[in-house]
Amino acid sequence: MKHTLEEYNAAIFAITSSLRKSEKAILKLKEGTFQYRLLTQGIQSYHIALNLIDHEINQTKLNLYSLNDLLSAIEFYTTTIQRVLKVMPKFKEGTSQHTLGIRRIKAFELAIVLLQKETNHVNHC
After folding, report:
1. CA distances from 7 to 31, 87, 92, 104 (A)
2. Is 96's pLDDT higher than 90?
3. What is the average per-residue pLDDT within 52-72?
């Protein structure tokens, strides 16, 4: 499935927002804790997705990722989407929280598509 520039830009915005929040939050956590490891995985996953999106839009150099890194990012986004879906019923439609949840789900689904595409590429090399 080919995505539009508008979809890519929306994904960049949502993923960058999540990345910034994670980078601020990780500074308050103790290394080695579960939350620290989860945020580290998220930060890495956000960077990978942003690189893949940039490559799709601008045909920029694609970083080389291990299959494990790609699969870990897919797992992270899949789990994160499930968490967002779980809390969505708490937010009234039209509120900023609801809108943010929808934007993140769309962005993370787009990231998964690109990660799966790259995973297939790595598997066939």
Report:
1. 35, 23, 24, 12
2. yes
3. 93
Cα–Cα distance measured from residue 40 to residue 106, given in angstroms and rounded to the nearest whole number = 22
How far is the CA of 57 from the CAs of 71, 76, 83, 107, in angstroms? 22, 23, 29, 15
Q: In this structure, which amino acid lies at residue 49?
A: A
Q: Which of 28, 120, 34, 16 is nearest to 74 (CA)?
A: 120
Handedness of CA 86, 10, 40, 68 (dihedral sign): positive
pLDDT in tens, 71-95: 999 999 999 999 999 999 999 999 9
Cα–Cα distance for residue pair 115/46, rounded to 1 Å? 11
DSSP at 29 = S
CA 125/CA 120 separation, integer angstroms: 9
CA distances from 106 to 18, 60, 96, 102 (A): 13, 23, 15, 6
Q: Cα angle at 110 between 58 and 16, to 5 degrees? A: 70
- Which pLDDT belongs to residue 1? 62
